[in-house]
Design goal:
Layout (H helix, E strand, L loop, with lengths): L2 H13 L18 H16 L11 H42 L4 H29 L1
């Protein structure tokens, strides 16, 4: 996709605007937001590297740009609201359950769940960075 479509999608996500999927009123989990930002960056890198099939249709460039922006916003929302929220909830619940069984409670669970979600999102981001480096 074009860079401006990806920037528009990322800006819409950072500002909390939702066109296609309603965002949760609270966060996806009580974990820190760093993992969500890393996963958003990975999603935007994927969108930037993906080829757009609309370029092969005889469409006016203005309509092509509008459709690309809407598609980028849709896929960014799909990645962050639908996919990442479920992953983050699962990781938080898993971390909470494991450390509850061990006997660790309080702020330690908050920071450890933030570490878990950030690690998973960071690995996803590193995967797309490596994929981007091999493409050139």
């Amino acid at each position: 996709m074009r860079t401006f479509a990806v920037i528009a999608a990322g800006s819409a996500q950072l500002l909390g605007c939702a066109l296609f999927f309603s965002q949760p009123m609270d966060q996806c989990s009580p974990a820190p937001c760093l993992g969500g930002y890393l996963f958003l960056a990975a999603t935007l890198m994927y969108l930037r590297d993906s080829g757009c099939w609309l370029r092969y249709f005889p469409i006016h460039p203005l309509w092509l740009a509008i459709i690309e922006v809407l598609a980028a916003v849709f896929f960014a929302e799909l990645g962050t609201v639908v996919i990442w929220c479920n992953i983050e909830r699962f990781l938080y619940d898993l971390t909470y359950t494991i450390f509850n069984v061990i006997g660790i409670q309080g702020d330690n669970v908050y920071w450890l769940s933030g570490l878990m979600t950030s690690l998973v999102a960071g690995v996803t981001l590193l995967y797309f960075i490596e994929d981007d480096d091999q493409a050139f």
